[in-house]
């Protein structure tokens, strides 16, 4: 693609898109055009999603300025582009399916990373049932939460019991450099915690309003019953009269117990308390819904960002929520960036794409066959494509869904049996390939599968052989 015409002027390209992608497309083109050396205009047709564009619609609605050399359409645009070329008198081409791949399309694949250092939402991470833990366990869990992104450690007490060491443990955490809140309705626990450095009390309603409002410490105001929003108004009025600092929490309810109505209460709280801080306890959803939590955390972070909810209470009690704090940390940064930059929260970073892959890059059947025909050495190449594992070396090309059967097949034709380490390597790699096929992940031999922020780096077989200086490599050259 020439970036200058025959008399030396930069090409002028018209990029066609839908309303949803306009802002981020312009952001990409603003940086890309000077790098590649073209000029551009953007035509936004009256559709939300660019993938819905098709040739008849474009022919009816598009106007092509006279100065345009050619027109780029989204890659998923349907229809015969020659019809548009004949109608408008300029060349039409399909670009990539996603405009974030335009740098690669124009040979500028290296895109600078997005700045995700900013966030607006504070994370309180609860140490659940702290009285049942040793001091060492409490400190270890607090450090883990802080390293996961928590801003404040919430010491969770046991309802109906009074813990004599609440103040002592809070002091221990404060001395270790943690900011601390106390989660209790017991007066002795709360007063001891506040006297030893707790800066926030969870929670305050009419059952403890009389004494908690005298402590001078910020409280989380909640309704007496989740559905009784009017009681929240009365509690706020009392806290204002006593000059008690507070934030409010209308209480997020679990699915099946008023979840939808509780979301509406957060919207109502923002309308009726426009200047007050709001908190959301997200554990009622993440802990009480049997599903992977990363997606829930992203949606909850987006809701909080849009409603200016500046703090959440997160927990990691049940196993499927064991990384909930880290997930919300990534989510709060992603949604802040997306909302501030008026762009969709995609193709910004992939740390929360954990189960599958953001994009699958596959060679295809023809390329795999060509590659197999050119191999002249005994090293095995393994691919995972088209719902099959593909194994090839100079002795043959085998493919199928059962790694045991594949192993028997290529073992039957090789001149020499595999040694134990080589057999282990091939089994390990085929196990990864099966996992990739099962989940829709990208598989690349000798590379770790990507699990988002949970990805573990691994030393390849080739690197191990080089370090050990033993025998030939068993991975690909």
Shape: flat
Number of helices: 17
Overall pLDDT level: 91
By CATH, the architecture of the largest domain is named: Alpha-Beta Barrel
Helix content: 25-40%
Query: C-alpha Rg, in Å?
Result: 29 Å
Can you tell me the CATH superfamily of the largest domain?
Dihydropteroate synthase-like
Pfam family, one: DUF6513
Organism: Gimesia chilikensis
InterPro entries: Dihydropteroate_synth-like_sf (IPR011005), DUF6513 (IPR045406), Pterin-binding_dom (IPR000489)
Domain Pterin-binding: 103-336
3D architecture notes:
- This protein has 477 residues and is of the alpha/beta class.
- It folds into three domains: 12-105, Rossmann fold (3-Layer(aba) Sandwich); 122-340, TIM Barrel (Alpha-Beta Barrel); 365-468, no CATH class.
- The chain contains 17 helices and 15 strands.
- The chain has helices spanning 22-36, 55-61, 81-88, 102-105, 135-148, 166-175, 187-195, 209-212, 229-241, 259-272, 283-286, 294-307, 324-340, 365-374, 403-413, 420-439, 461-468, and strands spanning 12-17, 39-44, 70-73, 91-94, 122-127, 152-156, 180-183, 200-204, 218-221, 246-248, 279-281, 311-314, 381-385, 388-393, 396-400.
- An eight-stranded parallel β-sheet has the order 10-9-8-7-6-5-12-11. A four-stranded parallel β-sheet has the order 2-1-3-4. It has a three-stranded antiparallel β-sheet with strand order 13-14-15, sandwiched between helices.
- The longest helix has 20 residues, at 420-439.
- It is flat.
- It starts with 11 loop residues before the first strand and ends in a 9-residue tail after the last helix.
- Mean pLDDT is 91; it is low at 1-7.
